[in-house]
Design a protein that fits this description.
heterodimer; A: Immunoglobulin-like; six-stranded mixed β-sheet; globular; B: 157 residues; mainly alpha; Rna Polymerase Sigma Factor, Chain: A; Arc Repressor Mutant, subunit A; 71% helix
Chain lengths: 338, 157
């Protein structure tokens, strides 16, 4: 058994790319360690196929606003206020750009853009789509240009998959892109473009090979418009309880629960970011509304910075009206907002 | 550590570091394994540790790799883990070995890592315990259970 086991792992090697990156490390020592979704000059995110296992898809219609209205109901159990809907409208831009390859036309219908997050509604028309199947693309590359992290620490990720079939037979897909940019750059400040490149339409199969149902390539370059209507709430500092990883004298890591000082907390319609002196377990962040409704952050990440401090950012599952929020809860600590 | 020393160490130990990380995360999260391996090598490049021997260096690398794996595991980034074209799956000389690899890697991570450290890297139960922050009795149990599952897989092959 030992021999067979050893032979097996004798053939497991670091990839050529990893070898090259490590061997060239001394030349790039000032560059950030590679997060899987970061490359040197550009912030290049890599294919993520949205897994909708067990989800029954249905006919869908309407806009991104309608989709967020549904999400709001799922998150809070209540209805969205008019003010809340206006915030989402203010963050959303109509695109309506189409590309055709073969018999398949892909249309980026609209996008909703926040500081480090965006959602894009994409319609695909041509083949007969089954509303009970999941569709995506075999190759998906989404980039924000120029690189919001400016080559410094940071990262991004995205997912894309069908959320249903429209009344006119198009497969409706949602692209969700989130990033952590320790530079503090906001992708909705008017200077950025979403580059989206799609290759080969596929029908996703759970537990099997995805089936290519149409070959082709579709590319989009969409300038992200300035968003200045939703306010940003800045909180200078706060102390919360969190778990930090400590390395003991013998090199062993252990989790320690302690007070964590957050500084430069930035609360926006699409998420919350802050800086800490050390890495801590990602804290759950919740926006609490006057009626008791809560929206809890869904995604996020942390990034070490050049000075050794940490930048953390998390995103809401749906954009929120910050002026309606009465308190933020970070970890177990509630921070009232005046 | 000079550039030449670092290059030599990287050539000798990158595979070991990557295999430990791959055993920790499993193939679906091989991008995380690559991140952990790269972070470990970066720490080697930056360390002021004076290594007393080759064994000391190797042990240090194994420990730092496991620490980096723990760090990455605690990050929410992993919730967005994906199979990446950029991180190819291991390729084997024999197709049967490819299947065997998948089956071995289908063992729970808590068995994979001690099995690898014990059987491939040759660390003792005590050393595996020290590396992983586990009691020797826990390591023994995991090795026994992992070995049992592994034997079953290998016998089926």
């Amino acid at each position: 058994m030992n021999e067979e086991y050893r032979k097996l792992f004798d053939e497991v090697h670091a990839s050529r790319r990893l070898q090259m990156e490590v061997l060239q490390m001394r030349e790039k020592q000032n560059n950030a360690p590679r997060r899987r979704l970061v490359s040197g000059a550009l912030l290049a995110a890599i294919l993520v196929v949205l897994v909708l296992a067990g989800t029954t898809l249905a006919a869908v219609s309407g806009s991104l606003g309608d989709w967020f209205t549904q999400k709001w109901g799922e998150e809070t159990g209540g209805s969205m206020t008019q003010q809340q809907a206006q915030v989402i409208d203010s963050l959303t831009q109509k695109v309506g750009e189409s590309q055709t390859s073969g018999d398949v036309t892909v249309t980026v219908d609209s996008i909703t853009v926040g500081g480090d997050v965006l959602w894009a509604l994409v319609d695909v028309k041509g083949p007969d789509f089954d509303e009970n199947k999941i569709y995506s693309f075999d190759g998906i590359i989404a980039e924000i240009l120029p690189d919001p992290s400016e080559g410094a620490y940071g990262g991004a990720g995205y997912s894309m998959g069908s959320i249903g079939v429209t009344e006119n037979g198009a497969a409706r897909m949602l692209l969700e892109f989130t990033g952590v940019f320790s530079t503090g750059n906001q992708i909705n400040d008017g200077g950025y473009t979403l580059e989206l490149r799609l290759r080969d339409l596929i029908r996703c199969r759970q537990g099997g090979e995805d089936e290519v149902i149409a070959q082709g390539e579709w590319s989009f370059s969409i300038p992200l418009t300035v968003e200045s209507l939703s306010p940003i709430i800045a909180i200078e500092s706060a102390a919360v309880t969190g778990e930090v990883l400590r390395e003991g004298a013998d090199g062993a890591l252990e989790k320690v629960t302690q007070e964590v000082a957050l500084r430069d907390i930035c609360f926006t319609a699409t998420g919350v970011s802050f800086y800490t002196e050390e890495s801590c377990e990602l804290l759950d962040v919740a926006a609490i509304f006057a009626d008791g409704a809560e929206v809890v952050s869904r995604s996020g990440g942390g990034s070490r910075m050049e000075d050794g401090n940490w930048y953390s950012s998390c995103q809401w599952p749906v954009p929120i009206d910050v002026e309606s929020v009465t308190a933020l809860r970070i970890g177990e600590t509630e921070i009232p907002l005046s | 550590m000079t550039d030449q020393e670092f290059t030599a160490c990287a050539k000798r130990y990158l595979d070991m570091v990557y295999r430990i990380a791959l055993n920790w995360f499993g193939p679906p999260q091989r991008a995380d394994a690559e991140d952990a391996a790269q972070n470990t090598m970066l720490r080697l490049y930056r360390t002021d540790t004076a290594f007393e021997s080759e064994d000391h260096l190797r042990y240090w690398l194994a420990r730092v790799t496991l620490n980096e794996c723990k760090r990455l595991s605690s990050s929410l980034w992993r919730l967005r883990t994906v199979p990446l074209d950029a991180c190819p799956e291991p390729v084997f000389s024999d197709p049967g070995r490819q299947t065997l690899f998948q089956e071995v890697m289908s063992l729970p991570g808590k068995y994979r890592v001690p099995l690898y450290l014990y059987y491939y890297e040759g660390y003792s139960v005590e050393e595996v315990g020290q590396l992983m922050g586990l009691k020797p009795s826990t390591v023994q149990t995991r090795l026994a259970r992992g070995r049992e599952k592994l034997k079953k897989i290998l016998m089926e092959e």
